[in-house]
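User: I'm writing a short report section on ligand binding and want a predicted complex to refer to. Could you take this sequence and flavin-adenine dinucleotide and write out the structure as tokens? A short remark afterwards would be nice.
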Amino acid sequence: MRRFQLALPRNIDECVKFLAERGPETKVIAGGTDLLPQMKNGLLKPAAVVDLSGVADLRTLRRQDGSGLRVGASVTAREIERDAYVRSAYPALAESGALVGSVQIRNLATVGGNLCNAAPSADMAPPLLALEAEAVVAGPRGRRRVSLSDFFTGVRRTVLAPDELLVELIVPALGPRSGGQYLRHTPRRELDIAVVGVASQITMSDGVCAKARIALAAVAPTPIRATAAEQALEGRPLTAEQIGRAATLAVEAARPISDQRGSADFRRHLVAVLTRRTLTTALERAAR
Amino acid sequence: MSPPSVIGQPISRVDGRSKVTGAAKYAAEFDPGPRLGHGVVVTSTIAGGVIATIDTAAAETAAGVVAVLTHRNAPKLPYREHKADVDPEDGERLHVLQDDRVHHHGQPVALVVANTFEQATHGASLVRVTYHEEPALTDFGQAETRAVPPGARREDGGHPGETRRGNADAALAAAAVRVVAEYVIPREQHNPIELHATIAAWEDVTLTLWDKTQWVDNVRDEMAAVFGIPIENVRVVSPFGGGAFGSALRPWPHVTLAAMAARHVDRPVKIVLTRRQMYGSTGYRPHTVQRVALGAERTGRLVALHHEGIAETSTYEQYTESLLDATRLLYSCPNVTTRYRVAPMNVNTPTPMRAPGEASGLFALECAMDELAVALDMDPVQLRVRNDAERDEDADLPFSSRALRECFRVGAERFGWERRDPRPTSMRDTSGRLVGYGCASATYPVSVEAASARVQLLVDGSAIVSSAASDMGPGTYTSMTQVAAETLGLPLHRVTFELGDTRMPTAPVHGGSITMASVGSAVQAACTKARRQAFARAKRPSADLVEVLRQLDYSVDVTVHNEPDDAADHYSMHAFGAVFAEVVVDAALGTVRVPRIVGAYGAGRIINPKTAHSQAIGGMVMGIGMALLEHTVVDARSGRVVNSDLAGYLVPVNADVRDLEAIFVDEHDPHVNPLGVKGVAEITLVGVAAAIANAVHHATGRRVRELPITAEKLV
Ligand SMILES: Cc1cc2nc3c(=O)[nH]c(=O)nc-3n(C[C@H](O)[C@H](O)[C@H](O)COP(=O)(O)OP(=O)(O)OC[C@H]3O[C@@H](n4cnc5c(N)ncnc54)[C@H](O)[C@@H]3O)c2cc1C
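Assistant: Sure. The structure tokens for the complex follow:
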């Protein structure tokens, strides 16, 4: 591992300042569960590392007055998993948090790290995509908001410039009769990387689907939305047949590769099954 | 008055406290003083060829680096002839840094020694190696076509290329019902939690090694041979092992490297292999392809059995194991042939991994038996009971004891086998998922080797018992303390058992499930003798050993060397078992879960039911891994292991494991050894993968003959 400088900022401004001063060879560290293995394996050799652990502003998870949820970038997967409001209002997000690593890993792993690491298989990305979350980004030029569907640009690449910091995610409030679920497939039950992950989020109105959002992990260079599948559902009752059709369209959105964890064909199969299942559960949850 | 019997009691590990508090010292934790240097190995990135250039300049000038050893500056070592039981009969171990030849991907090509581990790691990253690459055999499919029969040099106890009893071909052709199938098991890795590590320190001409090993005496002998020094000048210390499963049976090249480097830099040197390096340098269970043909009468009686297997080995050593041995004696069958081939490849040498041979061989045979049961429309338990052998038809000897039928009876009852609807896909759980029940036989040979033990009875009424044995986790410390306490007639807390040092009386390898029988017998014999001596020296008569000892002026000190008797000439000695597994299959996803495994074993006398049960459930967990997850993926282009870490090489986690139960049936075997023990380490892995595969077939109607049974193979 290369020798690096460590910065311990106490607030977001100090963070941004340090990033701007040190230039592109600087990396931010939150939980370090992605960054440290990458540094140890020599994939990343930053000259400076900015430790976010002292930045309290990034750690808040709060319900917004009246509408939605704000998730600080340094909120951990464990907090997401256990937060009562997240569990009841955004079960898909809570489920994705609960799937990350083991308890020890989840105590460290942050939402911001999961998204900024930008692995195609990042578990918390599909629910946040399906929930139409927005990312708040801070940089030397001030703050900007980016829709999460524009956030990922490639394998391990995001819209963040080297001197920018993800501050928080704004998750809009859901209307009544909304429901969602996240499911993934892994060979072993825990401590494994998604072969495919699917999040579905729907809102029902007068017996028809008013809104549907479906997002997929590990089937493309980035987590993606299956928009054709979403559109096919909207304005229609969610019969088994409609759900089946959406599953087929979701498969068409997927561009999987074959690797040691699964062939492209198997991944497509998983997208179909998991889309069907998550939509069915989402519908059940919307009815509650 | 003698205390109540402690043999057979579920005693908690006597070393448990030291392990959980960190007091137990593992190889890498010893401190040979402030001058300790840290060695980091540089490994080859090609599978075959010669080293063209090695540029060590940058590494040599890096901060903290003390020395860089390569084949160009490494001392030429004598490497005197040395072969132990754990070494392949044919071929010669890798001579590390002795020439420019590369035999496999991951072979050590340099060692960087520095003041700290980090400096050495950094230095190692600066070594630049170029190669003249030569065509290398890294693809099993290709190597298979050039497979050869194992060398015939071994008189007995070897693994012959051909065996035959009766005429299997003719009997198969005439059989009423036939099953012919091919089974594939990928390469598997031991993956003990403790990384392989060695600290070497020279003092003048004597060498001390703190090593992760299952056999201190052989590390001593091999290092003495490699360095051409007297055995008395080498001491090996290894009191604790953090798992091994066979990976630490032989000293691997890094042990030699540590000793070589320590002499070169004239300071103690520690080498801890990385997890990644262990995939290329500490052995593995070889990839095998097996073909089984069974012929039976309509009644289920076996009339023909043909079993052949091809396994990978390295180009420099011919590793063989007991792949087909159990097939020749597990069932009664007049016509049996086995055929064994090994395929030399540009790989590092395979090595025994828990139940080597039996675990692989019985996966094939026991799946084939299940296929036969289906073909016969017969209950799989009944088929096995029907073909139970009255004597070992291979060795033509009676069994010393054999509880296979009893194991099936007890296991089936405990498991609830009668609830099984034999039709595939006929059973479901409450959420509609497919349920399957499967079973398999298990067997593992019982061997006893010569061993020695020392007993010191101290005048304070306590005892110290020692032998150069090993405890890589099963509980040797505990079970030996029990045997000693019982034999001496002392309460447990008055007895201390010590192991893992070549200064102690000699012990055989801690492998092949022989420790309890071999070292246990020596401990028993030594304790009997010591007790007798103490009483003979008693000043006042007393029946209490503690009282007697307190009268003595000086301690009793006896060492006994125990040779096994000739029971093996008169009896075929094996443990037997029956394994039952339940699976739940999500048909759409193809995921298999194992909610339940029940194993019943006839393993002789059980010294400690608690540690024996731990062994058994550990074997079952490993069986779940073998059945569903484990697979060393080799890139056929370079021979590189692709998934060489614990994120890529999947073993079960707790969430994959549910109810595991092991039952030891009452078995009194007067022949195996005076203690009547058979060993329980390895048999508990045998049959598990087959039982799971058979349960998957029962659940889904799909027969997966290639491990691991991944979801993808089921959809
Ligand atoms: C054993 C193990 C199991 C795992 N299992 C899973 C799993 O099941 N599912 C899964 O999705 N992941 C898993 N991971 C990966 C990892 O734990 C998660 O992606 C985690 O959420 C990363 O968060 P972190 O805080 O540790 O990120 P870090 O490692 O600290 O950072 C990751 C990346 O994000 C950048 N970054 C972090 N915070 C910010 C910010 N605020 N602004 C800008 N950039 C930032 C860092 O510079 C770095 O490039 C696992 C990892 C391990 C080691």
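A remark for your report: The domain at 5-51 of chain A is CATH 3.30.43.10 (Uridine Diphospho-n-acetylenolpyruvylglucosamine Reductase; domain 2). The longest strand of chain A covers residues 196-205.
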